Amino acid sequence: MKNQILTILVAAIFIVACQDDNNGTGMLNVYLTDAPVNYDAVLIDLQGLKINASGDSTTESGWQNLTLDTMGQIDLLMLTNGNSILLTEDELPEGRINQMRMILGSNNEIVVDGDTLDLETPSAQQSGLKFNIHADIVNGETYSMTLDFDAEKSVIAKGNGSYSLKPVIKVITE
C-alpha cells in the first residue's frame, strides 16, 4: 500500500512539474543606431520606451514602461557606421508586442556649423513616437531589435532658420 501511495505521489509531482503554466519569460533587447548626416550633432532627449502587448491569460494588456539602460540626451551622430547603444534589456512575460513608443523630453537639439539650436518635437513629448513591432516574446528566448533612427530624413529645416524633428525610424529585428 505504501508503494502505491508513493507511486501516485511521485506521478502527481511529475505531472504538475511538466505542465505548461504559460508563465514563462523572455528577454527584449532594444538598440539605437543612425546613418551619417551632414550636421555636427543631432541630440535627442530620450525619456522613455513603452511597449503595447496583446493581452491573454499570461500577459498584461496595454502600454507598459520598459526599464531604460540609457536615458537622457543622446547624440545620434555618435551611432553611425555600425555603432549602437543598448537602450533596454528587459525581461518580459511571454506574449506578443504590437507597438512601441519612444518618449522624448524637451532637451532636443541640433548643432549646425557650430551653432546649437532647439529641435522642435511636436508630439514626441506627449504621446511619443509610435511604431509597429509585431514580435512574439517566447519563454527562454532573447528578442533583439535595433531602432535605426534616420536623422537625415527626420530633421526638417524650416524657412525661418529653425529645425523640427519628424522621426523616420526603421525597426530591424533579429
Low-confidence regions: 1-21
Principal-axis shape equals elongated
Number of domains: 1
Arithmetic mean of pLDDT: 82
Largest sheet, strands/sense/barrel: 9 strands, mixed
Helix content: 10-25%
Topology:
Elements: H1 2-18, E1 25-34, E2 41-53, E3 62-65, E4 72-75, E5 85-93, E6 95-104, E7 109-112, E8 115-120, E9 129-137, E10 142-149, H2 151-154, E11 155-157, E12 163-165, E13 169-173
Parallel strand pairs: 1-10, 8-12
Antiparallel strand pairs: 1-5, 2-3, 2-4, 2-6, 2-7, 6-9, 7-8, 10-13, 11-12
Question: What this model shows, in words?
Answer:
The protein has 174 residues and is mainly beta. The protein has a single domain (2-173), classed as Immunoglobulin-like. Helices cover 12% and strands 51% of the residues. It has 2 helices and 13 strands. The chain has helices at 2-18, 151-154, and strands spanning 25-34, 41-53, 62-65, 72-75, 85-93, 95-104, 109-112, 115-120, 129-137, 142-149, 155-157, 163-165, 169-173. The strands form 2 sheets. Strands 2, 3, 4, 6, 7, 8, 9, 11 and 12 form a 9-stranded mixed β-sheet that branches. Strands 5-1-10-13 form a 4-stranded mixed β-sheet, with no helix packed on it. The longest helix is centred in the first third of the chain and has 17 residues, at 2-18. The protein is elongated. The protein starts with a helix and ends with a strand.
